[in-house]
Amino acid sequence: MGELKVNDKEIVVPGQVLATGMDYLPSGDVFRDNDKLIASRIGLINISGRVIKLIPLRGIYSPKRDDIVIGKVVDTTLHGWRVDIGLAYEGNISLRDGSSDYIETSELSKYYAVGDYVVAQITKVIGAKIVDLTMKNPGLRKLGPGRLMRVTSVKVPRIVGKQGSMISMIKDATDCKISVGQNGLVWISGLEPKNEEKAVKAIELIERESHTSGLTERVKEFLEKK
Amino acid sequence: MAYNKRFDGRKFDELREMEAKVGIIKRANGSAMFRIGKTIALAAVYGPRYASRDVYSRVMKSPNHGVLRCNYNMMAFSGSGDRVRPGPSRRSKELSLVIEKALTPLVNLEEFPGSVIDVFIELPQTDSGTRCAGIVAASMALADAGIKMKDLVTSVAVGKIGDKIVVDVNKEEEDYEDGMADIAIAMSTETGEITLLQNDGILKKEDLIEALNAAKKGCLEIKKLQIKALKECYK
Amino acid sequence: MTDIIKEHAISLFSKNTREDGRKLDEYRKDFKIELGVSSKSAEGSARVTLGETIVIAGVKLEVTEPFPDTPDAGAFIVNVELLPLSSPDFESGPPSINSIELSRVTDRVLRESEFIDFKKLCLKKGEKVWMILIDIYPINNAGNLFDVAYIAALAALKDAKFPKLDKENKIDYSEHTKTGLPLSKDFPMSCTVLKSKNFIYIDPTDKEEEIADARLTIGLTSHDEICALQKGGEAGLTIHEIDKMVSLAITKTKELRKLIK
Question: Could you tell me the residue ranges of all domains in chain C?
């Protein structure tokens, strides 16, 4: 009745037929066209029972509520701060969400000045472009000097790992402070430049090989090398 | 006048030697190179991103979906004769438009309302079939950028020379002294939709249909190469 | 305005290192020059890769009337186009002021060093001379376009061969002769040195260009004489800094010359 045309963990491209017939169900970036299930993006196939899901390997960030993102303060206004979280999104932190303190409009820069980088959380996504952010939850803060790295936003879950296991492993092995934004920005600050470089290389390794298995082992091996 | 043997000895349905590579421009969101014969096309995709002033009004006119914008350009030293004066020409502006129309139907524009996807195509060397090569490269670049699409777009130029339909016309054939028809086609091989169709020259309807079918076969071959190049990064 | 990125970069500089582990006076490892990349259309062409920066240059040759004040000499024009293909920061449109600056600086290094023997480009005094047209295009801008664009132009010139000429001096582009351009054995080099706070560094990545206060592009002949200078950036330079930068450029161009040979 239905025929599966791909294997679990296979890499597929847009337009690739994943299954025919009505037996299988699409999820994620898989769509149905009559009796065919087709991939809409380049990604990794995940087959779970009758559900065919596509885990994208490339693509820009799509903001979602509760995401932790790293952004740059680009303006202070009467209502709060404007934050650039990349591409075509407009991020806003209202006065109320900036801090539990009462903030005078003239004092905005004391908290977050133009040019500051912050780790913020998305509270609301309005339409396709406007994103409301808060700084009031635990862990959210202004970032100090460090280096910023760009990663593919769809690979952030792999970089962070289950319950943060992957990123913690890198932090421990390199003795670096690392913040990962779902929007594809990673902030790294270590005592020694060599430590930071190692963290960067570990993250680059994950980016390159995110579609493979045994990655955690390989990252561990890399971190243990002198 | 019968055209019994192609100038370069190819079979009538044979494509020139091809090469494809993805991810060659690291600063772009997606990129690719496609070479067919001596024609080389580079494509880079930036976006979805903010609409700059010159495209702002287009973006505002369609609040429910984004805009795909294409810019096709030949490098000054890419032609086989004189230097090409830098800057947009009427021809390059027209090609930018038809290439944009060739790619747009396959892209899920509703995924990025209010934003622009910029596709830049540059040709360092040309020998006929440039708009087709540009589309093939642009399509891979869009996939490399993770843009959601219904299918890759693929493209080839087909010619009617004498009494023969030939696939993948080269410059010599394009300049055939007794006249020929040069048909550029872009399509989605999955849906069968033809998204670019242009013709220069005299053609009977039956010839056109024969040409379209011949093009489809050629496109299937090119698509295989596109898929291979996209998957190459993940070996 | 705070700038945690710049602060951090400076702290790395103070340890004589950079984000990619290089010292401040080191070029990026991946340096490649490929000739003839557009050989089927250009008379000369090259693609230069330095780190992740990629630039393509091509040479076309035309026969024209000489300029009235130099009736027995050929000429050349340099054109750099900052393609939006190569960076999210470049826009489509007429040449930007940055592309004009790049074109003119590259021109200056080549022209002032007397690298090309223009008299040898004369075909018929007062009537016909060769004109060299150099077009340079960045393909991926990961920093240091000044130097990479220059090297690409240099390589394309070295790669160039005259096309065949018929009796009326009309060009047959489909056939190349084996004759190259009249170039001096000694070639000029370009080295762009940047300053941020009180640190000077060469071969910047695009991120490192953003944190620079000033830059100085120095054109040097093979005898270490300065043939061109261009200062850019918002901040000033002291004489002492300029001295240091030129000395650094002299040392580093020697290194690059060895690699290019």
Answer: 4-260
Query: How do residues B129-153 score in pLDDT, each as one tens digit?
Result: 999 999 999 999 999 999 999 999 9
Selected residue of A141, A142, A148, A188 to mutate for chain C interface (largest C Cβ count, 10 A): A148
Query: Does B233 have pLDDT greater than 90?
Result: no
Cross-chain Cβ contact A40/B230 below 8 Å: no
Domain of B220: which CATH number? 3.30.230.70
Nearest CA in chain A to C88: A87
User: ipTM, 2 decimals?
Assistant: 0.94
Chain A residues with CB under 8 Å of C13 CB are none
- Domain-wise residue ranges, chain A: 3-56, 68-142, 147-224
A68-142, CATH topology level: OB fold (Dihydrolipoamide Acetyltransferase, E2P) (2.40.50)
pLDDT of C1 reads: 62
Q: Looking at CA atoms only, how far is residue B131 from chain A in angstroms?
A: 21
DSSP string for chain B: ----S-TT---TTPPPPEEEEE---TTSSEEEEEEETTEEEEEEEEEEEPPPHHHHHHHHH-TTS-EEEEEEEE-TT-SSSSPPPSS--HHHHHHHHHHHHHHGGGB-GGGSTT-EEEEEEEEEE-SS-HHHHHHHHHHHHHHHTT--BSS--EEEEEEEETTEEEES--HHHHT-TT-EEEEEEEE-TTT--EEEEEEES---HHHHHHHHHHHHHHHHHHHHHHHHHHHHTT-
Query: B149-174 pLDDT, tens per residue?
Result: 999 999 999 999 999 999 999 999 99
Same-fold call for A3-56 versus A68-142: yes
CATH class of the A147-224 domain in this structure: alpha beta
> Is B124 a domain residue?
yes
For residue C15, give the nearest of A114, A116, A193 by CB distance. Answer: A193
Q: B215 in a domain, yes or no? A: yes
Domain range A3-56, CATH class: mainly beta
**pTM as predicted:** 0.95
Rounded to a whole number of angstroms, the CA Rg of chain B reads: 18
Q: Is residue B197 part of a domain?
A: yes
Contact B145 A58 (CB under 8 A): yes
pLDDT for res B67: 94
CATH, range C4-260: 3.30.230.70
pLDDT digits (tens, 9 = 90+) for B161-217: 999 999 999 999 999 988 899 999 999 999 999 999 999 999 999 999 999 999 999
